[in-house]
Amino acid sequence: MGQTFSEKILAKKCGKPSVQAGEIIVVEPDMVLSHDNSAAISKTFASMGAKKVRFPDRIAIILDHCIPAASDKHAINHKTIRAFTEAQGIEHFYDINTGICHQVLPEKGLVKPGSLILGSDSHTTSHGSLGAFAAGIGRTEAASIWATGSLWLRVPETIQVHLTGSFSPVCSAKDLALKLIGDIGSDGALYKAVEFVGPAIESSAIADRMTLCNLMAEAGAKNGYVMADATTREWLAKRGVTDYETVVSDPDATYDRKLSYNLDELEPVVACPHNVDNVRPISELEETVHVDQILLGTCTNGRLEDIQIAANILKGKKINRTTRMIVFPASHEVYRAAMASGDLMTLSEAGAVILNPGCGPCLGAHQGCLAPGEVCLSTANRNFKGRMGNKDAAVYLGSPATIAASALTGRITDPRDVVAQGVSS
């Protein structure tokens, strides 16, 4: 019997010839990721009686959730982390001038096909976009790996999603991811792997794959992935990453479920408050939804391609006077590239406020919190009640094209209507 991608990687990491879905194994991850929560993890680490991390070269700590520090509490947290990384000799530490952890980790060449990445953040699933097994874990689990170098995992069943057709600027990977979550529910992939295959994924950009894998956490998935191919190898080679072993599913692998989508039949969607699986096609929104704030960015859609889509729609135009727009590139690498391309200037001239790379408003930490009764349309991955700092506000989720079109009108707007009117350049 053949094995899935996840079964193959986990078998290799636990030293067995094969494993089966449902089996409990002990593995040594290639990389353990954490962020601002590293201060809390370090305290748990110390409470275990641990003195030195087992494998300092397998730890990556990236400050991103509240940067620069919004209060003395946050500043103390950052100071604690800096001291810990220095004392432990952790080479892969990235301070506030780098970006969001899920963008920075692959940019720094720390994600390789066939590798096992565990991170104390649920959206660690993002790194499956480069052919890795990548899963979120808790803080206590992260502290345990720091101390021992290993952790137990349950081998997940796999849902295969076969894609045909092609993405477009007005109907993108974000729309597909939200559509999929809406179809199967926020627990539809609970502790399962989600495998994206088919001609559409083979022709997709890495940015699209990152968005898909990132959002699988919102369906409860343990990991989401795209098997490494020529596109993956080209992207990694630009970052000097060439030493890895590609892993692919066997043709006769057993799947828990198989789904199919034709991207040419896909239409723009939004996730309505207050659940990510409360997904509706924009064309079926019965009410006119005024938008107070637009958020472009986060680890889901803060990449150069996302910024370009929004800039193309807003070029030469002005954001609606009743709506404010904030832009958070996913990393400083993305920020500089968008500066060089002129896209940030385009967005600024349209009336957007460009802020430093980071997570800030996505989790209601700072720089874009909402007031009671306000509505935000965001490219982020979560819209739970209180997610952006106020329990009496409402958050809708959409694609870069949808939020850009809506910034022009001041209400949730189908980007196809805006492009049809010649607003896109």
Q: Compute the number of structural domains.
A: 2
- For the report, how would you describe the main beta sheet? 5 strands, parallel
Q: What is the assigned CATH homologous superfamily of the largest domain?
A: Aconitase, domain 3
Structural class call reads alpha/beta
- How much strand? 15-25%
- The N- and C-terminal alpha carbons lie at a distance of 52 Å
Counting DSSP H or I runs of 4 or more residues, the number of helices is 15
Level-1 CATH class name of the largest domain: Alpha Beta
Radius of gyration: 21 Å
Oligomeric state of the chains in view: single chain
Inertia-based shape: globular
The strand line-up of the biggest sheet is 4-3-2-5-6
**Per CATH, which architecture of the largest domain?**
2-Layer Sandwich
Average pLDDT level: 94
Number of strands: 18
CATH fold name of the largest domain: Aconitase, domain 3
Please bin the fraction of helical residues. 25-40%
Low-pLDDT ranges: none
Textual characterization of the structure:
By secondary structure, the chain is of the alpha/beta class. The protein folds into 2 domains: 5-262, Aconitase, domain 3 (2-Layer Sandwich), CATH 3.30.499; 268-420, Aconitase, domain 3, CATH 3.30.499. It contains 15 helices and 18 strands. The protein has helices at 5-14, 38-47, 72-88, 101-107, 139-148, 173-184, 199-202, 206-215, 230-237, 298-301, 304-314, 332-341, 343-350, 400-409, 415-420; strands at 24-27, 31-34, 59-62, 92-94, 116-119, 133-136, 151-154, 157-164, 192-197, 223-225, 257-262, 269-271, 279-281, 293-297, 324-328, 353-354, 375-378, 394-397. Helix 6 (173-184) packs parallel to helix 8 and helix 11 packs across helix 13 (343-350). It starts with a helix and ends in a 5-residue tail after the last helix. The mean pLDDT is 94.
